[in-house]
Amino acid sequence: MDFKAQIQIGIPTELPPKKERSSAVSHAPNRKQILSREEKQLAIRNALRYFPADWHAVLATEFAEELQTYGRIYMYRFQPTYDMHARAISAYPAQTSHAAAIMLMIQNNLDPAVAQHPQELITYGGIGAVFQNWAQYLLTMQYLSEMTNEQTLHIYSGHPMGLFPSSKEAPRVVVTNGMMIPNYSKQDDWEKYNALGVTQYGQMTAGSYMYIGPQGIVHGTAITVMNAFRKVLKADENPNGKIFLTAGLGGMSGAQPKAGNIAGCITICAEVNPLAAKKRHEQGWVDELIDDLDILVSRTKEAKSKNEVVSLAFIGNVVDVWERFFKEAIFIHLGSDQTSLHNPWAGGYYPAGSTFEESNKMMNQNPDAFKTKVQESLRRHAEAINQHTKKGTYFFDYGNAFLLEASRAGADVMAENKIDFKYPSYVQDILGPMCFDYGFGPFRWVCSSGKIEDLRKTDAIAFRVLEEIKKDAPSEIQQQLSDNIKWIAEAEQNKLVVGSKARILYADAEGRAKIALAFNEAIENGELSAPIILGRDHHDVSGTDSPYRETSNIYDGSKFTADMAIHNVIGDSFRGATWVSIHNGGGVGWGEVTNGGFGMVLDGSKDAERKLRNMLFYDVNNGIARRSWARNKEAMFALQREMDRTKTLKVTMPSLVEEKHLKDLF
């Protein structure tokens, strides 16, 4: 049976043979046993409803074994036999190119070269899932193959509820992930309801099909590291030979070494999972692998003495590195952490003093002891960082919930007021005021042809558009434009592509719309050979309400509200998005953030032109308006500039209050 026929059949008509897990890929850690006997039976009943009754006797036993062994039912038997990767859009069986584009993106998210735990359908972040099980994948792909331009597929936390009549103007797919009743968003609620098969953690771009491999974060990380060095170095200094120490080489964190090389420093990135470190090395995202702390110390000293630009992956625990570097008096200019601490008890953070294998066994068999170990390690981790910062290291939280979980563990990370953290979030110090408030965020596109020639042409188009914009841009955003022009000019030589032929670029509303219009024209006139798929990370201006990351530089008391993200996904849906998504959870954890995303297919039509003008404008300016209302001066500037340029935009501006009116009150 060929590829198209396999897609169209959905759940197979005959029970396929049982499949074993592959030893060639990384696997999700076994989850803790949290269900009662009755709840386990309910989980089996929930899983069996995808299949005909005459299969239930065989599958009930098999799914029970999976649940008991792994803590989840993944349905390994139903993994497709074809290779999982993004194909050219023409390879997919579909009634509409929009549906085929979504199929392409789903397969890219599950490509073993891209996904962190591909057989568990987890793309990145330890728990960021595209689907809960393989039956959901099969059904979703079948529905997409049948969909017309007047139907919408509704996805409930990975489960394809079905095709509903809609209209050409409606999104083709609407995705929700983890949308729990608020009082049921604690960590154990995720463990329980995910094990039952009724909800999932979509992370940010995993469950919305917009992940493009570690390139998706490398640009933002490069901007962050470059500007962090600008904060700590003198005007005549450069980052060569200066150390950036961090941790994590899994999904999104795998971008850090590449970003450090682009910024021009020494990057030392610790990773406890040897497979993850070796994968990034094989992909060219890190220069050298080191598994001995003595060798790491020696190599670091050599790199410093020679003012090298190099990335070193240490296969081991970052706590050991922080402590040893202090003893060796190795000065660290920048420090951060990008382990998945939004998922602290199920593989997101591995404690110092325990091996990778010991930790995986403990989190499954003795989760209370594992939690104790993690919190002990966090206290030790924070203390080592504190020792370095007293000597001048600039440490910033990378929005992975490191400071949040460290504070919950009792680590010394709180400011004197006992409310704020002693170290800033990178959004508070860098990306918020420099990028998000001006509307700059992670705009991305995928060439659906799968051709490198098309990607090169899009790079050239984006470069040309940004150069034109920069000529008349105000001084406030000249640095942002210059950084992005340099980025796109060097994108191909930096070998950023893993999986689909994709690119990311930080751009504001003007830049996104003009680049997208130029793409659409290039498709119409045949310069580009196939549609372009637009999207963004949820880590952006408007898409995410996250008080410890994306909206951490909102100071009017509203950072714990989620109105912006909800309005974003609703507003995008009726302004022309091809698909939209809204999630509970993301980079900082279940119950800690609400984030929304979109995808948009450009096919060279006037209809696509109309939609992109309308939707991309709102997708950015919704967030700028919220940030302006919070009295962020950069956002107030950006919003006023947009209202001067767009006469149909009229937004409430804040009236600023002088301190003299407040100082004697209360």
TrEMBL record:
Obligatory cofactor(s): NAD(+)
Q: Give the cofactor note text.
A: Binds 1 NAD(+) per subunit.
| One example of a Gene Ontology biological process annotation | L-histidine catabolic process to glutamate and formamide
Keywords of this protein's UniProt record, alphabetized?
A: Cytoplasm, Histidine metabolism, Lyase, NAD
Alphabetical GO CC annotations of the entry are:
cytoplasm
Q: What is its EC number?
A: 4.2.1.49
Q: Where is the Urocanase C-terminal domain?
A: 436-640
Q: Name the HAMAP family for this protein.
A: HutU
The name under which this protein is listed is: Urocanate hydratase
- What is the originating organism of this protein? Maribacter spongiicola
